[in-house]
Amino acid sequence: MTEPAFLTATRTAYDTVAESYASTLHDHLAGATFDRAMLDAFAELVGGDGGPVIEVGCGPGRITRYLHESGLDVSGVDLSPSMIEVARRTCPEVSFSVGTMTALEAAGASLAGLVAWYSIIHTPPVALPAVFAEFRRVLRDGGWVLLAFQVGDEVVRVEQAYGHAGLAVDAYRLQPDRIASLLVDAGFTVEARLVREARESVPPEKTSQAYLLAEAEAVIRSPRGR
């Protein structure tokens, strides 16, 4: 089966910027009060002994490491082998693997939580329902999902980032109401959302940032034999 073009483009871009991306963002959370607040809320809801958690699109593992230090049984998966190489080197106590959010290797209903931290932004909106269905598949009833993304309606062609030129990947800015609606359609209840203004950080933010925290609804199953 031919891989969708957006996955190939995303992998190529992040393989290119992996080292400089990790260096630029390695301490970004230290000054990101609202980011930490949403991650802390997620960690509290899942609970340290609540079960396994996965970060999809983990990049160099900075968010995965934060969740690990919060007491969660967390692992990371990313499309980019170069990103996974950095993550394994900088956070050897956590398990990382190469994979895609469109076809996770986790068994159905096996996870207590899933984080997609700015990792849905390269997925064409038309493909998001299938991605969220995959998230719901791997989460147990009552499991939690946390999303982070940039707010907007446009697609931005990224050709230069983190000191590298010659990139060719699209980044989609998304509306929180629309993403919340897609989560509901996939079987989630949105419990909290936060939209904050852009920060003068490194790298600088150009638009508002959104965070959605949702719980996987219980699946009503027909009695056996019907």
From TrEMBL:
Pfam families: Methyltransf_25. One of its GO terms (molecular function) is methyltransferase activity. Keywords: Methyltransferase, Transferase. Signal peptide: none annotated. Residues 53-143 form the Methyltransferase domain. GO terms for biological process: methylation. InterPro entries: Methyltransf_25 (IPR041698), SAM-dependent_MTases_sf (IPR029063). PANTHER family: TRANS-ACONITATE 2-METHYLTRANSFERASE, TRANS-ACONITATE 2-METHYLTRANSFERASE-RELATED. This is Class I SAM-dependent methyltransferase.
